[in-house]
Amino acid sequence: MRLGSWLIAAAVAASTTAPAHADVLYVYNSTISPFSFSYQSPDFLNLGIGEFLDLSTGSPSLSGDADSVVFRTNSYPALTIEASQGGNPGKYAAFAYEAVSAFGSYASFDGGNDIATLTVSHIAAVPEPATWAMMLAGFAFVGGVMRRRRITSYSPAITAPA
Fold first, then answer.
1. One digit per residue, pLDDT tens: the chain, 162 residues?
2. Angle ∠(89,94,95) on CA atoms, nearest 5
3. Which of left, alpha, beta for 28 (phi over 0: left; psi -120 to 50: alpha)?
4. For the chain, domain boundaries
5. CA 30, 36, 41: angle at the middle one, nearest 5?
């Protein structure tokens, strides 16, 4: 095969692999109230202005000591978290709207004595089987090319004395 054919085959193989995907982890901690929770999402929360996401402990991606959590975006650019425990009304904390869609650590700006933090981080992705298969196929391809390559060396002809 010529080099052009190999490049086309490599481009097709690269375009068919599925990228590994990392989950997003939201962790809420408070200094005064006992509320703390973490929420694991497959992607950033995609909340527009005026939308909300209501969670409960029935969701496998919510853990901590809060019974229910609501992520709510207000008309002004802020993310409000409402958490409740044991049926009691929740703790309300406001964060920068960027906390919905950017990694980092955010402090609440609700003006109270409570200092709440929301940390948005990513969970390391585990390579998918298709990724491992493509890597092994690549090693096999390189090994096959190296094996097929013939190295020719020049050795002068030796003639017998006459």
1. 466 665 565 555 555 444 445 688 888 887 766 678 888 888 888 888 888 888 876 677 888 877 778 888 876 668 888 877 776 666 677 888 888 888 888 888 665 666 788 888 888 767 778 888 888 999 898 888 888 776 656 666 666 666
2. 145
3. beta
4. 3-18+127-148, 24-122
5. 120
